[in-house]
Structure formats: C-alpha cells, structure tokens
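Case study B.
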Amino acid sequence: MDDNDLPIGVFDSGLGGLTVVRSIMEQLPDESILYLGDTARVPYGTKSPATVRRYALQSAQTLLKRGIKVLIVACNTASAHGLEAVQGETAVPVLGVVEPGARAAAEATRSGRIGVIGTRGTIASGEYRRALQSIAPKADVYAVHCPLFVPLAEEGWSNTDVAEGVARVYLAPLLDKGIDTLLLGCTHYPLLQDTLSQVAGDSVTIVDSAHATAATLAEVLDAMHLRRENQSAPEYRYLVTDAPELFREGGEAFLGHPLDSVEWIDLQ
Amino acid sequence: MDDNDLPIGVFDSGLGGLTVVRSIMEQLPDESILYLGDTARVPYGTKSPATVRRYALQSAQTLLKRGIKVLIVACNTASAHGLEAVQGETAVPVLGVVEPGARAAAEATRSGRIGVIGTRGTIASGEYRRALQSIAPKADVYAVHCPLFVPLAEEGWSNTDVAEGVARVYLAPLLDKGIDTLLLGCTHYPLLQDTLSQVAGDSVTIVDSAHATAATLAEVLDAMHLRRENQSAPEYRYLVTDAPELFREGGEAFLGHPLDSVEWIDLQ
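Model:
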C-alpha cells in the first residue's frame, strides 16, 4: 500500500477524541482514519503523569503496528504528559492537541488575556501555559481545571441548569480577570459549547483545539506530500478497550453520525 | 502466622471502598486490613460487565497471594458483575456489598417501598433487585442509576447547590413512588448523605451498604472463629495502581483519618 493511502491514526482515553475525528472528517474528507479509544481505563484527566504516559505509549504502539501515516494524540491529558515519549518511539509525524489549540487561541485574542480550561492533569502539567507563552510571550494566561465537565458531557447533561451552575463556578475566576478568549483544553468540552458561550458572554471567543488540530494536520499532510489521492471512499475504523456497544451508544453524540466498524482490543 | 492474624482483604475500583474500611475499623477495631484500590482504571461503574469482571479477578488474585483471611469486594459494580467469579477462585470466604446492603434495606423498610441508587453498571446488573426480591419478596423495588454522584463526591462537591440539583433530578422518580427507604448502592454515596437526606426528606431512611457489610463481616468472623486475638495494634496497608500521593490526598475524606502506608503496584 502507498503510504499516502494509510489512515490517520488518532487516539484518546475514550470518546472525547471523536470531536477531533469529526473535525478531520470535515476538513479532510478524503482521508481514512483509524481511531483508538482506551475506554476500559478512561478517564486519564484525573490520573498521574506516569500512568497516563504508560497508557499513551501502549495506544501509540498499537496504532503504529497497524500502519498509519500520521499519529494524532487527541487527548489533551495524554498530549500534555506523553507527547514527547510517543514522538521518541517512531519516525511517523506525531501531533498533539495542545500546540494547535494554543496557536489558535493566540491568534484569536485581542486583549492578550486568555483563559484555558482542561482536566486536572492537563492544567497541572502547565503545557498550555508553556505553549502560549512561547507563541505569545506578552499574553496573560489564566488556567483552571474543570473536572466535572467530562462526566457532565459523557452523561448527556451538557445543556442543563446543572451544567450552567457548574460552568458559573469554574469560569468565575477567568471572567473576573477579563479574558476575551477561552481555550477548550479538553476534547470533551466542545459538547458544552452552548452552555460555556452563555456563561462566558458575547465578549469571549471560544477556541476549540479539535478544530485547530485538524487544520494543523492538513498543513502537515501538505508539507509532507502525504495527502490521500485514491478516488475510493475513505475508511473509518474504531478500536476500543471496553465493550464496542458502549462506545457506539456514547460516541454518536461526539461524532455527529453513526459509528459502524468498532472492534474490541486488549492493550495489556 | 496464625490465620486469625491475617488481614481482611478489601478491594475497590478506587477510593469508594474506604467507606467500607472505615466501617470495619469502627466495628472491628482489632482487625488488620489490606486494601487495594485500582486507581489507574477507576471508575468501574460506567464499564462493561466483562471488563469489570476481569479487573475484579486481577485484584482478588493480588490480595489472595499476599495472604488474607476474608475477602471483601467493596465496589458495588464489581460485586454485581464479579462476585461469583471471584468466589470460584478461592476457598477464602468472599463477601460482596450487595447482599448485606439489601438485607439492611429489607429490615429498615416499613412500607415495603425501597429505592436503590447506584452506578450504571450496578443498576443494569439487576443484582440489588434480585437480592431484595429473595429477602423480601413482597417489597416494591425502584432502582435508578446516578452516574454523576461519583465525580461529585470525588471532586469534593458533596454539599453544594449543584449536588442538590443533581440529587433532585435523580431522586424524583423514586420519591414519586413514595419510597420510605433509600439504599445507597455505591460506596461513594455516603459522602453525599447530607444532601441526599435533605432532598429525600425525613420520611425516608437512608441505608448504607458499607455499614451493613462490616456488620456481616463481624458475623462471618465469629461463625468461622476467625477473629484476631493478638494484643498488638492492627496494621492498615493500602495498595494502589496509580500514584500513592493522589490516593492519599483524595482518600482522607473517605476514611476520616490519615493514610499512612500506601504502596504502588501494577495489576497488568
């Protein structure tokens, strides 16, 4: 098989990375995708850097063995703790979601006051702060972790009074600082976008790292002459570590269309 | 070592089982305890029966190898999906939390209208309903899953307006049925007891399976002449699959006192 015909490999702790898959499908409709969701061990956001790094390496190796042309670490926590370790394992280009998200936020801000929200692990790593400070050294970055947003999104409570109440508590310290840009540093958060917009108000631009990552992927494919040119329809395949039917049920809200080919695998 | 001197083995997906440890310490202050929390793969409540059973067997085997005189499956989801499989592996007595909790609820009810709350996995298994129907065949059992309670308890939002709002949504169908007893079918839920009492009102008795399990354990130790009679202080040791410091930080709210001896282990 021609390398250009190989799929884009994407992995995440569970469902969240499907927001990245959705953006890739929209921006690169000819590309095949091989997705891995580590649903038997989700979530990563509350776990230690060493454990997240170990899990990220196992997922990366599984996708690399199957043959992919680019690898996307679509989980912010795994990008924050494990990107370098994964890059050290392979000659295939490896992209995280932190760098593209930070770049998009730096482009969006007018006042230079940027809020970042993510899991406990992502925020504690300081990776978004570091990325933003290297792209926009004059920006003021305010970061808070929002651990209840993942379960709210996964349980389908995205547009409820409860979600709004939780968002008010989490965003208050950022709004007090007068941010004009809010960077969603977790692939689950696009599902809460309506609630977040309402609480943050019209003066705050919301930036989604899923969208930014797909745009960076398009640039990388062009730069490396790796775009798929085959005229046949692309293939979308999904690997999961817990039951395929649970992934199918939960995943369709993230992806926005049906999940067909879902296969169980064991990472251990 | 005399068998009576061996510790009680207790395992859970993470922190929740510490509410059972706390009840054992109160009711059986002379017993040593060896606890295992599978914090690298928590939670179990959203995962499939096959995955939960596999994890439960790995935890059980680890504790049995170290030497224990009784094994408590302190996670409701693991009890619901994996108790029989674990019992098939050993001659050591194995107790779950479902049976003792059901018995306590059957004793507490006057009207015979019992509400049960738990994780998605526990409620879907139907094990509480089956246990209650065999103990109290005339009881009316109403069960609902409450997946947001675990993250609310773990994130320290137990006594907040948000927790109260979530509890109102989850408990409404049970209160509409006129229950007089509410069985907490998840070891995390005792942390939400004040909020649950407030929402359920004075006419509803709350039954906690952690407390009931410790009482059953005392009966089993007496029946098998397995009480510890050594005059030295008991030992409390904790094994975890993710970082010990994360367990220590989170666990003290569950246990009600400091966690000293926490050791990392790998179950894979």
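DSSP finds eleven helices and ten strands in chain A. The remaining cases will be described in the next quarterly update.
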